[in-house]
Amino acid sequence: MLQDEKRIFIEKYLGKAESALDDAEFNMKHNRYSTTSNRIYYSIFYSVIALGYTENFITSKHKQLMGWFNKKFIFEEKIFDEELTKIYKEA
Hints:
flat
């Protein structure tokens, strides 16, 4: 993948993550908790997709993406606290 295309893709998914988080905040204020939860999950999902692209890991499969993130960034490299595994899974 060309570097410019990669950057555009990453920016696109970070934008989608931010938009989903904005939607979550709006829905939370209006007591729409199920939709809030959905939008929080997708904000995480889109962010991890963008992270995957920075590492040349490309998938659209939710469980595969979660497994890769947990293995690489929580258990192997220990960049994030293990609590994120629980948050991601429960979202």
